[in-house]
Amino acid sequence: MLRLDVTDREGARHELDADAGGTLMEALRDADMGIEAICGGQCACATCHCWVATDWFAQLPGVSEDERDLLSSLDHYDPQRSRLTCQIEITDVPDGLPVTVAPEE
To answer: What is the pLDDT, as a whole number, of residue 11?
Structure first.
């Protein structure tokens, strides 16, 4: 189990525990952090968009071309911080990862 440092859309901070085996999207959705995940984690809707702290961004697996294409169409896209949480396995997340749920599009 690892800890996530999550900032919700209202700016409130939460410490969440996440179990290995799922995705960051599932952990945030299950904790009611405002992640809709309309497509169910298929990298097709961007309703699980988050920002990862820039100094932690490189510690995650790289962004796929499909993910980058979808992210770049968003108003709140930041190439240095934006990720789709459905594309990040909990096993690939460093303990204490700071994540901010991005504004809704």
So the answer is: 97
Determine the length of the chain. Answer: 105
Task: For residues 61 and 52, give the distance between their C-alpha atoms in angstroms, rounded to a whole number.
Answer: 12
The span from the CA of 105 to the CA of 97, in Å, is 24
Would you tell me how many other CB atoms lie within 10 Å of the CB of residue 6?
24
For 42-58, the pLDDT digits (tens) are 999 999 999 999 999 99
* H/E run at residue 50: strand 49-52
Rounded to 10 degrees, the C-alpha dihedral 86/91/96/102 comes to: -10
Question: What's the CA angle centered on 54, arms 97 and 67, to 5 degrees?
Answer: 85
pTM, 2 dp: 0.94
Residue 46: name the closest of 22, 21, 63 by CA: 63
